[in-house]
Amino acid sequence: MKQRYQSLSVLVAAMLLASCGSSSDDNDNDASTGDSDESDVSYTSLKINAADYDAWQYVSLATGDVLDLTDVEAATSTDWQLAFRRTAIKLNGGVSGSGTVQVALADAQEEFYDSEGNADVSVFTNAVADTEAEALTVSYDATALSFSTDANEPAWSDWYVYDATTHQIAANTSVGWLLRHADGSTYSKVFLDVANYTDITVRFTTQAADTVQFAGSEQTLSATLATDATVLCLDLDAVAEVDCDDAGSDWDLRYEIDTAARAVNIWTNGGVYGAGSGAVFGTIEATELAAYTSATMVDSYDISAHYAADSSSNPFTDNSWYAYNLNEGHLLWPNFRTYLIDLDSTDDSADYFTLQVADYYSLGASGSPEIRFQLMSTGE
């Protein structure tokens, strides 16, 4: 058979890379076979125009092509295995597609990083792409690797404590969070007073849109899951529980308790659920957060860009294929990590591909990753 607290400080947070260079004028995707004079390694190389910030480019490893699929068509298609958009990569499986593709990190390229996980600039800048391609030819033991697929990941963390004796959860009252509302311009500092398998109580103070400080009195909102329900949604602006399934609902917090699916989460409106611009900053110690006078300015430092939205995660996000700004040039540098792609996790005889991302500027500008891949085996 095939295998199958995050804490943010106030002034230290990672900013999402939004852009590198200019948009490419080359709208073509280019496929070729790599076979250099310096290496005997043969592989398929595919240059992908993924510069659009909204459109995904869907790739078939089996044919070596970028497929002409809309997002709607891709949702039910099993012809693609990976999709690319700027630096992001998603899989046709899990929450991102109807396929059964799964991926494992096969070669972590640990020599590219120091003992604390920091990029070794010299190693990155002196790496030879052709030499690094040799990792594509290794016959990896798939049974020894940890495969996974796309899964939704809430940005809101560390909000409950679990009692291993009673198997109950309770609110983590020692911490709090800053929440950006669905409208993208209203904020609240939020504390949890109650959180269990049926009930939630939040206590919050709001910073109105287009202002820079909290105002008004602290408010409390409680809600109980309906019988057989697994989610409820709260609108902090209206201080009310609202319908999660209402497309026009401007809910700000989605409370999910699905013990059957082992899902115990808090989601914001946007990223995974909802069409809003919700996000969260924290976890922050409760006593520290209580002293905050603003959700966007802390000690004269603007933290508004440091809020995190919910997202999907997979081995490409958990083990990034690049480092950024190594020589103050605001560029991406590939680390040539090798990933093992299992085309069908339900079929022991399905093909495996080894894959690397070797470049981010293959078509002359940012947002054009070059991937190279090779069929490793057919089954086990």
Helices, strands, pairings?
Blueprint: E1 30-34, E2 43-47, E3 57-60, E4 65-67, H1 71-74, E5 82-85, E6 88-91, E7 102-107, H2 121-126, H3 129-132, E8 151-153, E9 160-163, E10 168-171, E11 175-180, E12 187-195, E13 199-207, E14 215-224, E15 231-235, E16 240-242, E17 253-258, E18 263-268, E19 279-285, H4 286-290, E20 297-298, E21 301-302, E22 311-313, H5 315-318, E23 322-324, E24 332-334, E25 338-342, E26 351-359, E27 370-378
Antiparallel strand pairs: 1-2, 2-27, 3-4, 3-5, 5-6, 7-25, 8-22, 9-10, 11-12, 11-19, 12-13, 13-14, 15-16, 15-17, 17-18, 20-21, 23-24, 25-26, 26-27
In total, the number of domains comes to: 2
Helix-residue proportion: under 10%
The biggest beta sheet, please? 6 strands, antiparallel
The tally of beta strands, per DSSP, is 27
Structural class: mainly beta
Strand content: 35-45%
Low-confidence stretches: 3-26
Shape: globular
Protein name: HmuY family protein
Signal peptide: 1-24
Keywords: Signal
Description:
InterPro entries: HmuY. Keywords: Signal. Residues 1-24 form the signal peptide. This protein is mainly β. The chain folds into 2 domains: 30-150 and 314-378, no CATH class; 152-311, no CATH class. The chain is 6% helix and 37% strand. It has 5 helices and 27 strands. The protein has helices at residues 71-74, 121-126, 129-132, 286-290, 315-318, and strands at residues 30-34, 43-47, 57-60, 65-67, 82-85, 88-91, 102-107, 151-153, 160-163, 168-171, 175-180, 187-195, 199-207, 215-224, 231-235, 240-242, 253-258, 263-268, 279-285, 297-298, 301-302, 311-313, 322-324, 332-334, 338-342, 351-359, 370-378. The protein has a 6-stranded antiparallel beta sheet with strand order 1-2-27-26-25-7, with no helix packed on it. A hairpin with a 7-residue loop joins strand 23 (322-324) and strand 24 (332-334). The longest helix has 6 residues, at 121-126. The protein is globular and about 70 Å long. It starts with 29 loop residues before the first strand and ends with a strand. The model is unreliable at 3-26 (pLDDT under 50).
